[in-house]
Amino acid sequence: MPILAIDTSTMVSGAAIATEDRLIAEVTMQLKLPQSQVLLGHIEDVLKIAHMDKKDLDGIAISIGPGSFTGLRIGLASAKMLSYALDIPVVTVSSLEAMAYHYPVPNIYIASVLDAQKNNAYFSLYEYNGKNFDEKKSICVMAFDEVIDFCSKLDKPVIFVGDIAQKKADMIAEAPNVSLGMPHLCMPRAANVAMAAMPKFLNGEFANIMNLEPVYIRRSEAEVLWEKRHSQDKTGENA
């Protein structure tokens, strides 16, 4: 059951092909290039590396968010396009849950964090149960210093993964009970999305692509600014 997995939740662009028991091929690029410029090329590349055609795919897995607003939209649009064209199902995976798959290790917590701007983080906490990951804290937006404070008081060691964790490495190094994941095991990967999505494929937990939207958690800065300006315009009209 080969599936194509896509991750565009951050500046990392990734595509992978996997089955129930193995990763067949993966392409990952961590460069400051728009996802719109590189994603479709990565999909073509990973199919070529795997010696496969799009018609050989049985499904698509996509990281649904949270993360980059633009990146998530591009990834989801690509997944929908392929789903329509190939008549195959789509399964969604939390971007934060997928990152936890870097560390399938018992007796520790994985703090998955992505940059939510203004020193805030999209944050969720996971623990490996021997088969997959239990969510110990639901996805939320928190100030990053509050995330560190929360994790430093937990009853098990915590490994941080994610882009803002790398940016705040000094803060993590100074706190008790927490550590930063290795660089190659810190950022999102499409292979992780594939592994997290596979149980859903096997259980038939497919998304309805007709109304499928990214999970943003919060509004974009553009939406906030538009609302603020629109409100000011109305205030001026009523003055």
UniProtKB/TrEMBL annotation:
Ranges in a coiled coil: none
TM region(s), chain numbering: none
Domain of life of the native organism: Bacteria
GO biological process, alphabetically ordered: tRNA threonylcarbamoyladenosine modification
Pfam families in the cross-refs: TsaD (PF00814)
Limits of the Gcp-like domain: 37-224
GO cellular component, one term: cytosol
NCBIfam families per UniProt: T6A_YeaZ (TIGR03725)
Protein name: UGMP family protein
